[in-house]
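Before relying on records like the one below, remember that each one covers exactly one chain. Contacts with other chains, cofactors or solvent are not represented anywhere in the record.
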Amino acid sequence: MARGAPDGDDRADPLAELNDAQRRAAGAGDGVVRVIAGAGSGKTRTLVHRVAHLLARGVEPSSIVLLTFTRRAAHAMLARAAALADDRARRGGGGTFHGFAHQLLRAHGERLGYGASFTVLDREDALDRVDAARTEFLADRDGGRKRRFPRKQTIHRLLSMRINTGRALDALLADESPHFAGEADALDAIGAIYGQRKRDHDVMDYDDLLVNLRDLLRDHDDVRAAIGRRLRHVLVDEYQDTNRLQAHITALLAAEHGNLMVVGDDAQSIYAFRGAAVRNILDFTEIFPDAETIKLERNYRSTQPVLDLANAILAPSSVVIPKRLHTDRVDGPRPQLVRLADEHAQADFVARRILALRESAGVALGEIAVLFRAGWHAGAVELALGARNIPFRKFGGLRLAESAHVKDVTALLRVALNPREASAWFRMLQKLPGIGPRTAQQLTDALVGAKLKGDLTPLREASPRARRSASALADFLDVLAPALAVERSASAAARAEDVMPATDVAS
């Protein structure tokens, strides 16, 4: 019987079904381990069996944290580990870096000066805050005159990239927006205004979650030690796509006990545009010189001709960790590598190839798929398919949380929890009859600037045209806010008793 499993639950050895390399990784002892997992080599399977093996060793599930790029992935891995070991695996902590940071900051944010009711800005709200900081800066510098200056989207992207990459603004401007070279000081000033307004209103954006968790762990030894005593095993998936902040957080989480396993493939790093630093996995042993490196090179997804092409492409590179993918599936058609002049030629080739497969080979359209690295790459192919009257389905689109009606309801809840949340007030007030952008801004300023937090008097004293709807909103918030406060207190108390569950604030 696996050690640590409940009585009467005779589970099989969680390492028995793994190949030799997977078994070495999943069954590694304490310490720091880097797993280089080639494409299709069973990376997820290895992590799942690692969790099950830790449980079989008697490790408490609440002391395991699994950091992934989606909350769904973490839940799925823990569920699979539960099937291998026992249902206690579901009590392990897991989720995204941002979600995990969110939970820890809820518990310890007061150490950084945040209230228990701080709120998290989504992208659109963050853009509005950046735009307000931009307007404030330009008004002071140029007397309000219009001038050529980066838009809010550009400013937000550059400020975010500075945080996630650690690069200076002038270097980012040179690479990303050279037509605004020389504006680094101005952008730095706008960033300072933006940061101060967030502090004033007790809000964080997604980048703040990582920055503040890093600061919490780095600057508060007692908090880091307490978290380290509770979370004894840190596992990180897709480590090749972590940024500098996430790598620093990972090291700080493991500083107390030294039990860290990172899994990834340097040849599959695809998020450099979001600040991912493939050097995190390449230089891992420079940061952790005693780390063991285990390579997963047996592929279960492709045939050997496909792997031969992949190996040949990677072999000349001097910036990847050497590995050679192999498989037992030695036979199969050779892949085609087609070189084309541009995206339009590529789209035309794809459309013609689809027609040839259907008309010459009899392949049904429903059995043909076109994959893209990013959604915006699809445009040319959509046009090419439409020009040839080829029907298709496109997967993707607007997320539920980004839908206008969901954001409207969320804004209402946010002001009930945090009455100093200016962007939520501004959005919600414009939905009321008789209130336009100017009146909404005036009311927002009055509500946020009220001496007594949560004072709704400005709503009840609104202009005659808006007073009826504004007063009704105030009456509703008088009922809603206390109810939400009670619910939040109960949730906070429950979280304090156990390791925080997986949460993805971005979803």
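The radius of gyration is 26 Å.
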